[in-house]
Amino acid sequence: MNNFLPDLTQLAQKRALITGGTSGIGLATALLLAKHGVRLYIIGRDEEKLEQALEQIKDENEAVEVYGMSVDVTEASALEKLFDSIDKHWGGLDILINNAALGHGSILEGDFEDWNYLVKTNITAYLACCNYAAKRMLQQNDGHIINIGSMSAEARQEGSSVYVASKSALQGFSEAFRKEINNDGICVTLIEPGAVDTPMQDSSQEEKDEKIQNLEMLLSEDVARSVLYVLSQPKRCAIVDLKIRPLKQLI
To answer: Where are the beta strands (DSSP E) in the chain?
Structure first.
């Protein structure tokens, strides 16, 4: 029966970059991967949150190798500096978890600067990180890229047109990108959660707790376990799309 269990030992010493790794899904994923000996590099915009996240990860596994950098993923120079640092520390990369993203409502809200910054964060930065990561993975004919999307790409709720646009674009990109690099031994997975208790949700914690209790909202840890599941598959098995929704979220 043990043959049916995932081989988590294969993750030990893998080199993983997590964008948006200082809170929510990114931090929960970092904490879980740290338990299994994955070497981590996390980034976020807030320096204080970054330091707190690094401390949490070390508390989870004091032996884990973890680095962090305060990065605005919309800045090309910052991303170049990030991947230069990864090369300096590791000389390559095995796993990219593209997670940093912003929420937004309708196109009738905000202005050009708001929409432009969101597109740079939710789309352009994902493309850039995939480019930088893939170039390194192609040298070793191996690697795994996970893009964290959203069920909004399918549900397309009223009042969220800007966010829906960005996540729909990510959905299309992930499918085409996978076809471009699968034959080189690199796996691309798109994970699309439903509602998750993260800082992106603008409702009160009391409201979010009630939704969790009512099975209408996920915890960040639920998505992190899904990431672990995807990464623990044998090389022959590619999880291409994974949609996760709260049991009673009707979308």
So the answer is: 15-19, 39-44, 66-70, 95-98, 143-148, 186-193, 241-244
Q: What is the average pLDDT value for the chain, to the nearest integer?
A: 91
For the question of residue 41 being annotated catalytic, the response is no
Query: Which two structure tokens, joined as six digits, stand for 4?
Result: 């049916």
Q: How confident is the model at residue 3 (pLDDT cuts 50, 70, 90)?
A: low
Q: How far is CA 181 from CA 75, 130, 135, 194, 222, in A?
A: 25, 11, 10, 28, 28
pTM exceeds 0.90: yes
Cβ–Cβ under 8 Å, residues 19 and 98: yes
The catalytically annotated residue of 117, 126, 163, 229 is: 163
Which pLDDT score is estimated for 117?
A: 94
